[in-house]
Each structure stands twice: as C-alpha cells, then as structure tokens.
C-alpha cells in the first residue's frame, strides 16, 4: 500500500513534465516487472521466486540492525542490552510506540508489497485469456501465490487487527483504502490456504532435493499451508479446525522429530536437538526430518545473489564475547556476535526443568573460555562472570543462530537458513488447540511427545493451561519463533511480559498496556490515504 500511495506523488511529477514535452513518454515499456509479462511459465516462475525473495528481504533487513530485536525484546523472553541499535527501543519502552514507529511502518509496507506481488500472479493465473499456461501449471503457481498472500494477511491481522483488503493487483495509485472487517480478512485467508493446501506440491520421501512436482524442496508444499491454517484457526478461535490441520500434518508420515545425531556434526560434540540448527543441517535435503518450511539462504561470497540483505540474527542473538581481551571469534562460539538482546532471567533461570536437552550447553551457551593465543596465561581458562560483561559480552545465549564464516570473520552478516516451520511447532499448535477445547489429557500427550524427545519430565492434564503451552513454546522455539507475534495472537503479551520480564536491570519493560496487543497503523499511510478514512488503532 505504501508504495502505491507514494506513486501518486511521482505520477503528478510525470504529468507536469509530460505537459512540457509530451512525446517524451510515448514509448511503450516492456518491463519484466509489469503484470503484462507475467503470462507464460517463465514469467510466472520468476514472479513466484520473487515472493521468496521478498520474504527473505523482510527477515534479512539490515538497514536497522536491531530489526530482529523488535520481535523479542519487551516480551517474556528477551531484553535489549547496552548494545541496542535503536529501532527496538519502543518495543520495551512502550510509551515511545507511536503511529510514526519505524518498525511498524516497515513491516506494513513489506507485507503489502508481498500481497501485491502475489496478486499479480493470481490475477494472471485466473485470467481466462491467458492461454500460455495449462490448467495444472496455473493451479500450481496460483496456489503458491495464495499461500504467500494468506501468510502476509495472517501476519498483518495478528499485528494490526483490521487492515485494508486488496485481492487484485494495484497498477495505479489508490488513495481511498478502508479497513476491512476481520470476517472479510479471515475469509480470504482461509480461502487462500484451503486452495493452497489442495493444490500445492506434496513432498517426496526422505532427503530428496525436489518435491513431487520436481521443483526444489525449499519451494512451497501443502503442509506449509496446513500448518498456517492451524495457526490461523487458533487466532480465529476455531480450535477444532486447528486441531484437524495440525493432526493432518503430523499424521502425513512426511515428517518425524529428530531423535538421533545426524549431518555435518554427527560425530562431534553436541546432541540431536542442537544438530538441527547447525549450518548445513537445517534443510530437509540435509537430513532435517522436522523441516516443513525452510527459507534457504546461500553464502553470497560463494553463490552470487545467495542472500537478499545482510541478516543480523547472529549479531543480535549471540554474546559479544569478542569484546573480552583474550577472546577471538571462532566456529565453536558461533562466530562474532554483538548481543543486541539478552535472554530474560525467566528463560535463563526459571524456564527449563533439570535435564531438559533444549537447555544443554549445545543449545544455550553459558560458559566461555579464553581462546586467543596472544594471551598465553589465559588460554583455556574460563572467562569469569563479572560486572556488566555478564549482560552482553559473556551473557548466556542461544546457539541457534551461531555460524562462523571464514570469509567474514568480522561477522557482519549471517548466512544460515531460516527455519520457518518445523514439526516441533506442529505439536505445540496441536496442544494449544486441544487445551482450548478442554481436551487437557490429549494436550498433555502432545506436549509429552516433545518432552520425551527433550528428556524432560512428563506433564499431566492438570498442568495444561495456555500459559503452560506458551512456556513450552519458549522451551522448544526460543530464537526461532516471532515471540511478540505469538503473544499478540494469544492476547497474552501484557500479562506475560509484565509478570515474567518487567524488571531488567538495564532496559526494563515499561509503559506496556492493552493497546499494545496491536501495533499502530502507520501515520504515513493514514495521511497519504486522502480520499477515505483509514482509522487508527485505539490508544495511538
């Protein structure tokens, strides 16, 4: 939306220019980016790949290096450190979260760009005059585009509530958007995902590098749509339908929980849970049998165009140990990080039961040892926990984003894949759906599948509450899930952030109120939308 509102201003400049030199713009363009060219298989394929490129760009945004922190700090799982970048500040100091917020404005614009690009594909696939693609090809590419459209809209609704609905491509400026009802938005999301789950590719067995359509296994498959359907149904309160979708993914036989060492680190130090997050182990084709959707990245120093931007996840999540004299960035420590956030005390000291594999030294690093040969008297000795160093330089941190790139020892960009959906989360969605229906024994059984894998104590039906399910999500998915979005979806952000993580010594969570269960509609969108009222969310 933002792009098309802004285009209106540009169009005015062109009109004024053309009045002076009319023939200058008579040339008919044939740009590969215009909807006119998205009619044959090559155009459709390029456009579909572009959807992955757009989503990658959202995740790897580095213009504001604190971007990954926006979705974690000021919740129950993380706090900003002295190394904060800036964009994340209103997300723990909520009194500063206004309609001019940079993060809210950025994600709004990016998701609407993703929607419009998906709409271009859908419009051309549904156009009866387009005879360059057969019916099967049209269904396949339309299903892929509808998955991304539903994905973007489901995220927008979770973050902003009612938002404008555009189900056809915008090719001219539009300045009269209004917010659609949740019923209208949910109907489109469910329609798109139902179509996608029916028409997207199945997966081949094992570690095949291609799906049933012969395309790379990293492309959209029907189980991605089913998992997103489960999450969307939970947001809508349709818990029985959410349970059906999660069960269908689990019962498909296409996925299994990782319970044994595998892959590039199978013979080295580690455990089977942490093996999933080792660079070279994350993809289905690399042996990750839990992988439902992995957004694959390549090292741009090896594969030209292998990444869209410079992903900051490692720098945000890892400890800034490089700042301790006697410490050098290295592979065993996950490369160079700068700790823009720190796991909350609740996560570090109150979340995991004794023996839980997800809290092992291979998943959450708590001890550091001097490794710089230039300091022979210190080499191999433990780095003491002292003073402010414990808050970011040698703070305990998740290893999920760690990876050392010898081509980038400074550690500016991260090159790991993004594990968007995996089977561990499917069991958590299933447990949530069961618990919300009062099926507490079934919910405990679903949770215990994960706890058995993690060597954690079994739980009972009496323990099954939404809070417990959200606790278990943190144990299983810390560093993976968008925690803010999960707590906004479940309506628990205010309670859990206040109760579990409001007293950080450096950047405490303050000003959090019920209005923050939704983000502000960007002021720029409201102002550019001159021909209709685009209402603001309450309290902003």
Automatic annotation (TrEMBL):
Residues 1-18 form the signal peptide. Gene3D superfamilies: 1.25.40.390. It comes from the Bacteria. Keywords: Cell outer membrane, Membrane, Signal. Residues 416-540 form the RagB/SusD domain. It holds the Pfam family SusD_RagB. SUPFAM superfamilies: TPR-like. Its main location: membrane. Residues 24-205 form the SusD-like N-terminal domain. The keyword Acyltransferase does not apply. It is found in: Cell outer membrane. The keyword Signal applies. Belongs to the SusD family. This is RagB/SusD family nutrient uptake outer membrane protein.
